[in-house]
Amino acid sequence: MSHTITPPGDHARAGKPGVSERGTLAILGFPTFGLALSITMVSTYLPKVARQFTASTTVIGVIVGAEGLMALWVPLVAGTWSDGVRSRLGGRLPFVLAGVPVVVGGLVLMAFVQSLAALALAAGVFFVGYFVAYGPYRALYPDLVEDQVTGRAQSIQALWRGAGTGIALVGGGVLLSIGRPVPFLFAATILLLVVGAFAALLVRGELFRAPSTSVHGIRRTVRELGRMLASEPRLRSFLVANALWELSLAALKTFVVLYITEGLGNSLSTASLIIGAGAVFVLISAGLSGKLADRFGKPRVMFVALVIYAPGLLLPFLSHLPVLLAAILPVVAMGGGVVMTLPYAVLIPMMPEGQHGALTGLFSLTRGLGTVLGPLVAGIAIQVLRPPFSSTHGYQAMWLVCSAAIVLSIPFSRHLLQQPPASGTTQSRGG
Predict the structure, then answer these.
(1) Cα 79 to the chain's mean position, in Å?
(2) Distance between CA 313 and CA 252 in Å, rounded?
């Protein structure tokens, strides 16, 4: 039996999900919390651990950028595969249950390895498991959530993501100060608990994707995706913009702790407090942006946020005065909240039925490009600009990379404001 979340009766007319729908959307967000906590702990504090073995920010960027390398192919394979799987647990849940133990294994390895090569291997294991689980898991949203509430569905997911990210950012520094293994073992424990609860509730509620009406091989699906990209300019624009958004976020996540600690000379505990304050604004933005997107249009809200976000990211590059940084923190955090919340909601109406997993994989692939390039480009920029920005050891160059990526995405985001054609390959969900 398969359930689809639709706003029934008066809720449909008001565009508001009912109580049961809100509960189901909350349950769908459980894995996001654990996965976000885990990947934020890795992307933020793995560089700090790696500093024990190397002083090269470029090498650190390459290790963290392994996330993007895995995102280039693992989600597409797993997502496409999950589109055709028929089992008692549906098509998506088996991949979640297979991937999470691998994620946990990677976290445990990170806690105890004693060389840079072993740390890089642990990161690779972690990211493979992460994308095996996350791509099919995220495809549950277009499987189960109707377009009328996708904005709010992504807001609820973003709140879970923000909570996991915030706990990792705020608590990770404290846990790392207790001992190197502590943050990684903490993340592994939380992930096992929330995914276990999610799987139990999903099975109990029979919230499974209905079996696919047609099962295609990966090669055929890739050919169909290629034809879709050739015929759908809005989809192409979205995917380019998505890569640039993720490039900006990945650069920020990788080097923000080092910017605050080594660049500005603050302690790790102070960095946790600053990042925690930013996380509050991220959560506020996540909660508001989905509602605004469902009301005014997802591409429109995204575009306006980007226009404000880009100059906000540039200011810390131009000055590191504490007063300015404190003033710009809410703008940067809330802009980041929108960029973390809305992209998938923008994509969902473009997804044809029967290819939710494949399109989710393509979404993750473009994110992977950004995730590879973000830490690498920012790491190079920090090293190249270290002499002229010696007061922050070059770390303020990170902000230039983040801002430039958002600026470059704006023309592509503007294209998304155009009305889609009345009929087309990607409009089967109602646009």
Answers:
(1) 16
(2) 10
